[in-house]
Amino acid sequence: MKLQPDQSDAPTITGYGPGWVGVGPEKITHNVVIGSHGERFEWAGSFEALAPEHFAQLAQLQVEVVIFGSGARIRFPQPAWLAPLAQRRIGIETMDTPAACRTYNILAQEGRQVAVALLLDTVS
Asked: Whole-angstrom Cα distance, residue 124 to residue 65?
C-alpha cells in the first residue's frame, strides 16, 4: 500500500491569511489566478470590481475547472458572467478563499487541469 502522495509539478499554495497567499516561498498580496500548469497572473481588483471580462479571461485557460475564492465569505458572481466558461465546458465552483486554496491544492496534486481565482481580503 502506497502511503506517500504522488509528486506533482503544479504550483502549490503553501499558506494564506487576510490579504495574502503563499505560493512556494513567495508571498502574494494581490488578487491572483494560479493554474496547475504554472499560469499565474494578477486578477480583478475587488469583488465589487468584477466584470464579465474577468470571467472571459478565465475561460481562455486550458483547464477543466476554475475554483473561485470570493474572499472571507462566499459571494457569487453574476450568472451571465459565467457564460464564457460554460461555452468552453469549464466548470466553476465558488467558495471562500481559504477553502478555494485547499481545494485547488488537492485537485492540482491529483493531476487535474485546474485554476484558482483568488480574491484576497485586505487587512484593515
From this structure: 32
